Amino acid sequence: MSRARDLGIVIGSLEPGAHNAITDVPGVLVGHSTIVEDAERNIRTGVTMVVPRGGEIWSDFVFAGHHSFNGNGEMTGLLWLEESGMLGSAVGLTNTHQVGIVRDALVRYSVDIGSPEEFFLPVVAETWDGWLNDIDAFAVTQEHALEALRTASSGPVTEGNIGGGTGMICHEFKGGIGTSSRRVSVGAEVFTVGVLVQANYGSRKDFRVDGVPVGRRLDYEVVPPPWPVEQTTGSIIVIIATDAPLLPVQCKRLSQRATVGLSRAGGLGHNSSGDIFLTFATGNHLSPHSNEPYGLRMLPNALLDSFFAATADATEEAILNALCAAETMTGQQGRTAYSLPHDLLRSVLP
């Protein structure tokens, strides 16, 4: 699996964490369940889970905030998240038609482990993989979602054609899951900002790498697009994590900065695109049933500029990592999404 830095592409000046992944944020886990089948129907889909605080998130909530750059998409649980400012579950990523079953699996899991919550409104987001995947086959089951949850781990994250990103297409190349991280110093403390994307958006002509319009330099005759007519459909989900002590309004501000990284890579927020971003911050501990005032920490807003830069840079690099890691895939009706060719990419970069 190749990544942007393996090709000499470095975004921004802040240093990444040990794995250059969202799992560099302490306690954050990522798991995948991937479904590729060609028996009765052509299936190219799956589920990805991002788990804050490991197994403790169900009883030790985190502050969170979101931003919708363009809202032609779905992320469940946002009304209560906006109202309460807190997240108390893993975050699931899958295809458009199976958000409900992944959400139900998270509810089931919370009941099975004896979560003290009387009701549960988990967060699950989607992008549409119906070009390569027979999305109407409803291949994802609760067991697939639970597999992604139970196998979630720290360390390096598999990218590209994996989990929820299995059937996704980005800038008319094969897309999918990508991740990146940045370290931010605040006085004597060092915090981490990690990003994970499910990238399924964009036209090739808009694709940029570190400011270079490479999409216009990659010949369609050399790398054919996946479809016969140019498309502006598609979506991206961006999940941002940090161990900094941020309050919900500050999480929302970080979510907004994912738009900067997306736009640098060539995302315009087309009318039919669901570009939805969520940030959670683990720097405070929040018992959902506390009857005592929380003892909270909060970074001053004046210190957030480096976190904004970290979010933008890690979002841009996570998109590039998704593209660099993804491999050519043929799906239903013989449709093929070709991978971004590394040699050609190098040849058009300075």
What is the CATH architecture descriptor? 4-Layer Sandwich
Shape: globular
- The rounded Rg comes to 19 Å
Strand order of the largest sheet: 4-3-12-11-10-9
* Termini Cα gap: 23 Å
Secondary structure tally, helices: 6
The CATH first-level class comes to: Alpha Beta
Pattern of helices and strands? EEEHEEHEHEEEEEHEHEEH
Mean pLDDT across the residues is: 96
Strand content: 25-35%
Main sheet: strands, sense, barrel: 6 strands, mixed
Instruction: Give the total of beta strands.
Output: 14
CATH superfamily: L-amino peptidase D-ALA esterase/amidase
Domain unit count = 1
Spans with pLDDT under 50 lasting ≥5 residues? Answer: none
Under CATH, the topology can be stated as L-amino peptidase D-ALA esterase/amidase
Structural class call reads alpha+beta
Characterize the structure shown.
This protein is an alpha+beta fold. The chain has one domain (4-331): L-amino peptidase D-ALA esterase/amidase, CATH 3.60.70.12. The chain contains six helices and 14 strands. It has helices at residues 78-84, 99-112, 142-150, 248-265, 305-325, 342-348; strands at residues 29-37, 43-51, 61-71, 86-87, 91-95, 123-127, 169-170, 173-174, 176-186, 189-200, 235-242, 274-286, 329-330, 336-337. The strands form four sheets. It has a six-stranded mixed sheet with strand order 4-3-12-11-10-9. A four-stranded mixed sheet has the order 1-2-5-6. Strand 13 and strand 14 form a beta hairpin. Helix 2 (99-112) crosses helix 3 (142-150) and helix 4 crosses helix 5 (305-325). The chain is globular and about 65 Å long. It starts with 28 loop residues before the first strand and ends with a helix. The model has no long low-confidence stretch (mean pLDDT 96).
